[in-house]
Structure formats: structure tokens, C-alpha cells
Amino acid sequence: MARIKLDGLKKTYPGNVQAVKGIDLDVADGEFVVLVGPSGCGKSTLLRMVAGLETISEGTLHIGERVVNTLEPAERDIAMVFQNYALYPHMTVYNNLAYGLKNRGFKADEIERRVGEAAGMLEIEAFLTRKPRQLSGGQRQRVAMGRALVREPAAFLFDEPLSNLDAKLRVQMRVEIKQLQRRLKTTSLYVTHDQLEAMTLGDRLVVLNDGLIEQVGTPMEIYSRP
Ligand code: ADP
Ligand code: ADP
User: Fold this and answer.
1) Ligand with an atom nearest the CA of residue 36
2) Which of 90, 184, 205, 226 has the fewest CB within 10 Å, making it most exposed?
């Protein structure tokens, strides 16, 4: 597990679009922090900077003890869960989970252990030989989470992972993510525009507005204010 620390993080896109205007945030070891706020407030940009998918214009980003500003995504010891699943369509579920580990040179028994563990936690053991197109939306999203789990990262980043699912599945997956969080206690940064998701999952919520932090607090503190 790792602490994620943002000091004065800024992002200016070409055309002088100031998407993130100076964010200080300290996510503790094992803490689950949810970023909320209106569309266009900079949530996704902030998360993508932490992931290494977007360059940082200004400021310092620590993951664990390291400054990771210029490290590649794969070197940051994080795993990201996307809303569009990002599965390999031609591979079985097992190989979707195993592929990255194989690339990274893990031994066969270690791959089997990690895939087995993740599949067990996400209850997708029965689908390991299927292709993604033979799965429901919820099952696909579980596989996408499995791809993050098998990496056994120091931190998880979630970019609206449930927003493509129907309402019933969203509720179910919300509960499942909460259970995983209780079990794994991995440091997490989670972006959503869904208030119920934020309230259910977040130890702490960070409300962004126009590229800046507007409020920080527990779900109770944020949503019980007049
Ligand atoms: P959110 O995730 O909260 O909806 P984003 O981080 O996607 O917000 O966007 C923040 C601001 O940055 C918006 O004004 C958006 O239009 C702008 N923006 C996002 N991505 C780019 C980009 N690649 N180039 C230029 N502007 C961008
Ligand atoms: P994976 O490792 O997910 O099976 P690849 O081996 O094709 O897929 O990885 C492509 C690149 O993207 C690698 O640098 C990998 O470390 C990175 N990457 C893949 N999945 C994630 C993820 N969920 N979060 C962060 N980085 C990822």
C-alpha cells in the first residue's frame, strides 16, 4: 500500500485551458478517496496525471516514497480501472487477466495464483475460458477489475468504472467494490459523478470545482451541509 501525495498539481492543456489549477491532496495508506464535482471540473485530468496518462504541467506527485512525475504508468505501481472495460476481445478471460503478468515475466505458478485469487474475489471463475463478448456488462467490468487486481498494485485508480452499467448493476457493483475495499484496504482514488457511489465508497470525498478543491470531508460532512 502506498500514500498518494499531490502538491500544487496543475494541468494546462494547449490553448491555455487550465483544467487543474493547483491541487494539494494527501491520500493516506489504505484510504479510499473519491473525487466528485460537476462535469468539466478536472476530475479525469487529475486522475490521469496520477496514472501517468497525462503530463503534469506543474507541481509534485508522490506515490509511496517516490516522486513519480515523469515515470511511465507501468513504473508507478498503480492499476487503473476504466469505464470502457479495456479488455482484449480475442483473448479468454483467463488470458485477459494473465497477459500483463506474462509480459512482465512472472512465473507460471505465480500467474496462476494471482489469476485464481482475483477470479475468486470477483466470482468470475466460471467464465475464465470465455471471450469478453460472451459476458454480460457486469461480468466484463469484473474482468476489468480483475486485470487491476492481479497486478497487486500499491494503489488503485478508478475512472467512473460503473458509469456504463445499468442502474441495478451499478448498485450491485458498488457493494462489491466496497467489500473488496474492506478486504484489500488498498489505497484508492476514485472518480465519479454519482453521489451515492461517492457516499458508499469514500472514506473521504474531495469536491472539485473549476480545477480547484472546493471541499474535503467525510461523506457525512459533505452531504449533510445545508
Ligand atoms: P471532468 O473529468 O471533471 O469532467 P476533465 O478533466 O475531463 O473534467 O476536463 C477538465 C477541463 O479540461 C474541461 O474544461 C475540458 O474541456 C478540458 N480538457 C480535458 N481534456 C482536454 C484535452 N485533451 N485538451 C484540451 N482540453 C481538455
Ligand atoms: P496488462 O498489463 O493490463 O495486461 P499490457 O501488458 O498490454 O496490459 O500493458 C500495457 C501497458 O499499460 C503496460 O505499461 C502496463 O503496465 C500498463 N497497464 C495495463 N493495465 C493497466 C492498468 N490497469 N493500470 C495501469 N497501467 C496499466
Assistant:
1) 1
2) 226
Retrieve residue 136's grid coordinates.
Answer: 454480460
Question: Which value, to the nearest 10 degrees, does the dihedral of the CA atoms of residues 173, 54, 65, 23 take?
Answer: -80
Please say whether the beta carbons of 51 and 76 come within 8 A. yes
Helix (H, G, I), strand (E, B) or coil at 61: strand
* Mutation choice for ligand 2 from 54, 77, 80, CB with most ligand atoms inside 8 A: 80
Give tens-digit pLDDT for 156-213. Answer: 999 999 988 888 889 988 998 999 999 999 999 999 999 999 999 999 999 999 999 9
Q: With a 6 A CB cut-off, is 209 part of the ligand 1 pocket?
A: no
Q: Identify the burial level of 87 via C-beta atoms within 10 angstroms of its C-beta, where 0-12 means exposed, 13-18 middle and 19 or more buried.
A: buried
Substitution candidate for ligand 1 out of 13, 18, 20, 83 with most atoms within 8 A of CB: 13
Instruction: Give the predicted TM-score (pTM) of the model.
Output: 0.89
Q: What is the pLDDT of residues 140-157, one digit of tens each?
A: 999 999 999 999 999 999
- Distance in Å from the first CA to the final CA of the chain: 36
Is residue 9 within 8 Å of 67, Cβ to Cβ?
no
* Helix, strand, coil tally for the chain in percent (to 5): 40, 25, 35
